[in-house]
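Why does residue order matter? Because the sequence determines the fold. Keep that principle in mind as you read this record.
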Amino acid sequence: MRKLNDYCQEFFDRTTSSCCCAVDKKCLSVSLTRFLESGRKEDAFDVYFCFAEIFNIFGKGYNKNTKQLLELICDYEMNAGVLVEKQRDHYVHSVYVFAMGLSVYVRSSKYRKLVIGSNVVEGDFLYRWGLSALFHDIGYPFEIVFEQIKSYTKGINDGGAYFPILTYKALERFIITADGVNINERLASEINRRLGIENDIVLTKLNRLIEQSDEYIDHAYFGAVIMYRTLKAHTDSDVVNDVTASIMLHNSFLIHKLKGDFNRKISPTDYPLAFLLMFCDELQDFGREGFGKVSKHDNLAFTAEFDISDATFKMNYIFDDNGEGKAQERVEVKKRKLSDFYDLHSLFSDAQIGYEIRQNHLPIAQHMSANFFKNIQKIAMQIHSFYLEDKRGEVVITEWDKLSLEYKLSNIEQAKSYAEKLDRYGYFYDDRNLHYAEVTVFTDKQIKVLARDEHKRWMKEKREMGWTYAPIRDNEKRLHPCLLPYGKLPPKEQEKDKDAIRHLIQNLKLAEFKVYYISR
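Structure:
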């Protein structure tokens, strides 16, 4: 069986997108590959960043709305999620869902024909799918707050007799856009058009979600409303309707709230985008961190492998020996859900879900600084600022916006490497005042060692982006004279790597971090 990496690479090799140039597409492809190899939040960030920068979602790249929405869900999961019983990561989860959907699309000609047959040009699929997959869970903060209050009072509510009420004020106005569009009406109309359920029935049940919001919060509904409000001014209405209705359906609305009104299994022929989102979201239950009190102790699969073709969808969850006792039970639950709610045979004649146990799986080591992935761009911008200072004798931080995506990503990769470089010597960075010894400079010996590490990292980055060695640099042909082992570089070029290390602690300081030492 193969890993998602193989299929995603095939997707980017075989498909075209009119929305981005070849180098930007390569940036997204490399970022997704890097994430699928590591499963780390820092690398998931790259995927979000590249997608936002390429498509200018919400009117402007990663900054502002995109940054706010994604950091909000991360903050809630990492901080508020520990106060509820069941809460798992959704930030990394959504990137895995994105990768799974690309894999189905590129491997199934039946699915591609359905998508293109629904008036979506091939190059447009990446945009619609990215919006749906990467942002389908942004409504979770609404649900987490609600579950927090319920969890807090669980032990004192006398079996449910005393139930806390949390309401969101003026939700009726929240679903009306500035130009008077009723979002519930648009969602109902799209679901009616796609699935044939009577418009009034869907609208009534959507309106009930507002009426019942003091008892039940559906994150999919709030995510759909947020996306509609945020996308409407910047995206074609057909895309907005398609994406937001898919997000609306992905959790439980179709399966539970519309049960009886839609009395058959959902098929990709009904609604290609929604089907793919529901299907991939249901199966993506691997490599996820638990935050809730119960979820922390769940032994989920640490990865999964696939065999996808026109006729076949086979998926194996890979558990380590700690998860062996629960593996079969978890997989059986998945099989029942797929059998009960999804018409897989209209897409694959052979669909199988299984599992394997592999011994001695070691989780990826986390650096002391790793939780600060959401500040990576801030550090990357500071790295670029120092580069400008070196080149021109002045700091012009606003020029970050003028960089190509490739060079923004290059600064981001260097910023991400800071945690690993510091970790080599038992150092870490933090934005708090901690009772550890503060580090203000590297020794000459440390600078020499870390400069070699930096050059090795830089060469890997360049090669992934398609650069090769040549004695004379040619940007158009992607040729570079510094793609040599560190020891073979001219002294002037070695100094550049040393300067990158000399500036490291100062860059962090200017980005409002301190470097500390902790003995091991």
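The longest helix spans residues 444-464.
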